[in-house]
Fold each of these.
Amino acid sequence: MPELSAQLCLMSKNILLKIQYDGTNYSGWQTQNNAKAIQDTVEAALSVLHKGEKIQLIGCSRTDAGVHALGYCGNFITDLSIPGEKFAFAINPLLPEDIRIVHSEEMPEDFHARYSVKSKTYIYKFYPGTFENPLLRNQAWHIKGSPDLEAMNKAAKEFVGTYDFTAFMATGGYPTTTTRTIFDASVTVDPQGMFTFSVTGDGFLYNMVRIMTGTVYYAGVGKISPESIKDIIASKDRKKAGVTAPAHGLYLFKVNY
């Protein structure tokens, strides 16, 4: 029945969702056995909207347990008559309060939340202080010392370019290639003393941003020199890079298509 198949294809829509979530209570984005994931939770809401039909939501990437998102993207195929821009309003009442769809729209048939990505921007938040701020315990990393902003920015700029980032990958990642391109990296500080490390690249290895953050922090407190970053990259030795910053300070900020 090719005519019927063609009609069904014409009826279906490819919907992009932009999602914000607090990852504190989740095992990460990706569906896992015996653990609560963001993907499962959003797919369950989509299933309710589709009267019990199982809907697969394609995510732009994985995020680890405890990691947050301000601009995560996913897409799914639907035959509902709801306009693309209205799906956010339809789905949000079905979600827990720590997940929200902040934008939805209909995309071309060939759009894919993962494979259509041109770059991603992550941010990592950390702050110094004698004591940890209890209001930030799940949102930012409490560090020791008073890091030097100029030194951290010098270190961050050393990441820009196309390199083999094996030294910045945690054990457990099995990519087909460890070469990535970093387009921009910098550190800013706000009037309240919160530092934000921002990095944009064509992709990231397992725990790469968290290790980059720890290395930038080490440069800020004098444990390594900013000029040594290129040598650390060239060494492909994880032991030469900085500490892996904890998950709760990391945010997927923006996905560029």
Note: The chain has a mean pLDDT of 94.
Amino acid sequence: MNKPTVDIITMGCSKNLVDSERLMGLFEANGFHCTHDSDNPKGQIVVVNTCGFIADAKEESINTILEFAQAKTEGRIQKLYVMGCLSERYLADLEQEIPEVDGWYGKFNYGELIKELVPKEKAPIPADTPTSPIFRHITTPRHYAYVKISEGCDRHCAYCAIPLITGRHQSRPMEEIIDEVRWMVSQGVREFQLIAQELTYYGVDLYGKQRIAELVEGIASVEGVDWIRLHYAYPTHFPWDLLRVMRERPNVCKYIDIALQHISDPVLERMQRHVTKQETMALIERMRREVPGIHLRTTLMVGFPGETDDDFQQLLDFTRWARFERMGAFAYSEEEGTYSAEHYEDDVPEDVKQHRLDKLMRLQQHISAEIEAAKIGQTMKVIIDRREGDYYVGRTEFCSPEVDPEVLIPATKKLSIGEFYDVRITDAEEFDLYGEITA
């Protein structure tokens, strides 16, 4: 008898991807066959894992739901379920507007879907332990995976809807995380991206203090862990011991993703970031001093309510000074329910926002081109992700999957996906490097 097929469609960030992988593991443990992000889903069941962070992401999620609702109406699929951030936040409205959906689940109760779909005469494998590593189907290339160490955020920045969706910060127990890493190593994973809405706050709720440095050190001690990379730190009350771990442990990448948003003190105050321009610059200086060669990834925002020409000029000057190795930027969009939506007027015109965004990104392209060009002639350790046409595509320790520059290596000899090679950099573009195997 053929197993019923479930296709999981994941929208949004890598944290959502981890939830999808856990749900797939639960489905498979209960006798289902799962596919992920299929180009042409033909399963009896489709589950859309939605994003609800910003307007564009919400629109994309709603359009995807409507697409599969039409597929259900036409008989191309049998059942449609929705989970994730969008349904966590807008459940009542969505239930009324899209009645074709068979069931709505939020950010935390998606395991309950198993109970609805497992035949009544069978006892489902428990769905209340979705963090167990045996309930996880890794969808990324075999050699790397994401590890979600906590959920939620206590920071309450004025513009951000995440606390409205995910609630307060909840750390996973350290032993549970390290056990999951051990299990993934046994499955062939060598590179681990640690992710959270606020990674540096890890442990405060469970242990009464920040314990991210201890967690990273514990993961680094697991045999078979070749690379650990850190995503989504926060500048206020930064745990300095984390820099020591990064400096001393060779398998902890000299890389950190820390969203700074802005540098002007008036804007930072209105954003409720609880950090100043001086403190931000001191943080960057200390990071570069204590971890030589560190690559910093950040995200900046333009057009926040009240941002003046002088505020924006400070942001440009700061970007020139900081020379971020990796930087993304976006224009402010008002999110209902947030402090800024309720207390500030969205007073920066859209064309001004776009002009500022374009100017900031042009500056960053120039900085990135200079930084990458300086690597020509260096020999760097590279992990191979895939082959595309005449090139193998890999990454250095300074590059996270899907968001950072890649290294293109001519496929003149056979390389193994998921293996490390010494690569001499021969050329550079704004966001990519070219190289050749040295041995």
Note: Residues 320 and 409 are 31 Å apart (CA to CA).
Amino acid sequence: MKRFTRMFTALIASVALTSFGGTVFAQDGGTLKKIRDTGTIKIGHRDASIPFSYLDDKQQPVGYGVDICMKVADAVKAQLKLPNLKVEFVPVTSQTRIPVLTGGNIDLECGSTTNSVERQKQVAFAPTYFMTGTKIVVKKSSGIKGYDDLKGKTVVFTQGTTNERAMKAYNDEKKLGINFIPAKDHAESFLTVDTGRAVAFPMDDIILYGLIANARNPGDFVVVGDFISDDPYGIMMRKDDAEFKKLVDGVVSGLYKSGEINKIYTKWFQSKIPPKGVNLNFPMSDSLKEAIKSPNDTGVGACGRMKC
């Protein structure tokens, strides 16, 4: 009984922290004051969002998003005059990333998070650093060529993603009668298709290409379907912290203006990347080039091609 009481108390405290975290930080001086007082900036990372944020063969966070967030850390170090600023990486999932951020356990989230209208009610975003959308990965042997071939079949989704919402909306609109099953992260979702427990996994196309490239048998899989959502990625931070947002936005916009973003992009999308040395050969899209020309933090959301 005592153990249950302790667990319940901890749960209530966690909910309270998540609910009021943004207010507390605003009253206490915001993220920069928190970082100055602790001497640490906490960056949320993913373990399988290749090539944005994932673990290499040494179990260290790496990726396109991680590199950009490290540029933010350098700017924070300079602005606060903290040469010994510590960078602490905190693992997050699709489900936990927003509560962990708003609760104050990370200062930035650097992964593959879509800047959607719904999420803007809870968090803030830096200018878009990638543009993608929902497609599905299937086994080549399945014979599935598009979404309508999923009628009556089992589809796995990563919990807490905009892709889940887009796929379910399509299912409702087309009355496909899909059986949906959840997974905790992208790696588990992909494994579910690999082992035959589901025939398809809807996810942002670039994430799917990354998962396939690092699979045991890449030739077994194919990405199919047209985009059924628009998903602009951006660094996520707490709302109502104008000073910190100005710094983060300035770093991202500065990478765009200087052209340094092109080097970072080439490193992760058009060069060999760890752990297997695979080259995704994924040229920068016209939509991303446009976003880099005119950076903004409004996003498009997950409903650009769907009725939500």
Note: Confidence is low (pLDDT under 50) at residues 1-24, 301-308.
Amino acid sequence: MMKSKIIIPLIVLCAFIVTGCKGKFNALPVATGSPYEIYVVLPEGEWNSEAGKAIKEVYTSEMVGLPQREQNFRFSFVDPQHFDNIIKPVRNIMFVEVGDIYTQPKFSFTKDVWSQGQMILYLKTPDIKSLETFIPENKDVMINFFVNTEINRRVKYLKKNFNKDASEQLADLLGVEMNIPTELVQMKKRNNFFWISNSQALRMDLVVYSVPYTEEDAFSLDKIIARRDSIMKYNIPGSVDGSYMKTSKAVDPSLRVLNFNNKYVAEVRGLWDVEGDAMGGPFVSHTRLDEVNNRIITVEAFLYSPKKAKRNNLRQLEAALYTLQLPQETELPEIPVVVTK
């Protein structure tokens, strides 16, 4: 009897150790820092070099599609001598490594080095001077690497934390699946149109709508905006009689083509306002082709947050667009994080 009492705990302990060895037990702390915050590890003497200035210009550049100027990232330089245990666990890090073992500037990346969920971008170069042209030429790579990383973090969160009732109602109405944030609770449904919003001072909204696929140029910027204005005018009235949402003419909307899960996605960013009322804000939409039902599906996020910063809130809501699954899709992959053009 004494032996059995000893053996059983030992078996449990061994099982725990084996489980840890298989990677199910992770001793790393959770990554620290704020979303869209980057630390660049670079010798202090190089901060004010042309290459250092170019890196700063990339990460402090203006985010597209906002009504006021906001940087893409919150940004800090760190000298390697001061890269200590306080900074090591932060979520987004970029190392600039200079050495004659490299023949030309190049990127590489790794993750989960000092914390869970951490992403590290390496820029390896034979000398600082060679970065002066390389960095501006690769601006989009440097920005998209960390933007996509942050969106993937949010998508991972939304896989487990979403408004299941709203997502089911969307599936019943339009036959598509999407992980709708739990903050969004107020719904409006019409034929082929779904709208859901929160009930807070910071207004966050998602809309999903479909139209038949009948035109070859249906994914052009002009056609996407024309459909948007027609559908929003009918479905989203303003607070004043006769007022309605429309695309603002204050700035030109922009179109970017994405390849997500080997599918064509037309991403549009711009500003919206209300005809006949003093409201407005930023929006971002994804337009895709549902081949099974020969229709176009658009999902859009928009904000109303006058006089307040909008970058993080819009990016957070934007992540939900990436959870859209059309009838022919059975999985929700990560957004590709790449370090090449």
Note: Residues 139-160 form the longest helix (22 residues).
